[in-house]
Write a structure and sequence with these properties.
The complex is a heterodimer of chains A (114) and B (112). Chain A has 114 residues and is mostly beta strands. Chain A is built from no helices and 12 strands. Chain A has strands at 3-5, 10-14, 19-21, 24-26, 32-39, 46-52, 60-61, 64-69, 74-79, 88-96, 102-104, 108-113. Chain A is globular. By secondary structure, chain B is mainly beta. In chain B, the strands form 2 sheets. In chain B, strands 2, 4, 5, 6, 9, 10 and 11 form a 7-stranded mixed sheet that branches.
Chain lengths: 114, 112
């Protein structure tokens, strides 16, 4: 079974600075997808960014980018120019192409310091 | 286009009671899933479905039943509620392989 590990329960960053959230995963599959989800206090789960395992190019969405290291099974999220609205729980997730299950890490709570 | 709709948003049950959490999506998504979220444990998969008439167990299926008679609906049934089932429940759906799942707004369930 696949596992997703987020080793930083909490992180904080000054407004306008850059922060990186870590995620590692364990799998024997070669075809899969990786995601970062944001959960603000409203409880809504919001998809931030998506990465296909067979693509070497790192995904980017505006201020959000990932560092995908397939051999190391690492998938970190970088948030540039942090804003107060970025404060939330962030979850890393793995989707198997074989059985479609989406497996989550335990999350990182990000605090933005004004 | 309402997305993924979950009802109710809040529910209090007594131990031993049964209930159904409703989930509906209007995006013609084939894949649907139910998760529970507990503090410090992320979201854990309860049951999922890859299409109408097809369901399978996830990581924590005990005490829950599902069925998928239509593409749109994927209800989650608690057979005999226990305090350990106190949690926030999310339903999610996805169009095709590799897509991110779209989540409903969640149901906060308390079992007393």
């Amino acid at each position: 079974a696949q596992t997703v590990t987020q080793s930083q329960p909490e992180m904080s960053v000054q407004e306008a600075e850059t922060v990186t959230l870590s995620c590692t995963y364990d799998t024997s599959e070669s075809d899969y997808y990786l995601f970062w989800y944001k959960q603000p206090p409203s409880r809504q789960m919001i998809l931030v960014i998506r990465q296909e395992a067979y693509k070497q190019q790192n995904a980017t969405e505006n201020r959000f980018s990932v560092n995908f290291q397939k051999a190391a099974k690492s998938f970190s999220l970088k948030i540039s120019d942090s804003q107060l609205g970025d404060a939330a729980m962030y979850f890393c997730a793995y989707r198997s192409a074989r059985d479609e299950k989406l497996t989550f890490g335990t999350g990182t709570r990000l605090t933005i310091i004004p | 286009n309402a997305g993924v709709t979950q009802t109710p948003k809040f529910q209090v049950l007594k131990t031993g009671q049964s209930m159904t959490l409703q989930c509906a999506q209007d995006m013609n998504h084939e894949y649907m899933s139910w998760y529970r979220q507990d503090p410090g444990m992320g979201l854990r998969l309860i049951h999922y479905s890859v299409g109408a008439g097809i369901t399978d167990q996830g990581e924590v299926p005990n005490g829950y039943n599902v069925s998928r008679s239509t593409t749109e609906d994927f209800p989650l049934r608690l057979l005999s509620a226990a305090p350990s089932q106190t949690s926030v429940y999310f339903c999610a759906s996805s169009y095709e392989t590799g897509d991110g799942y779209t989540f409903g707004s969640g149901t906060r369930l308390t079992v007393v």
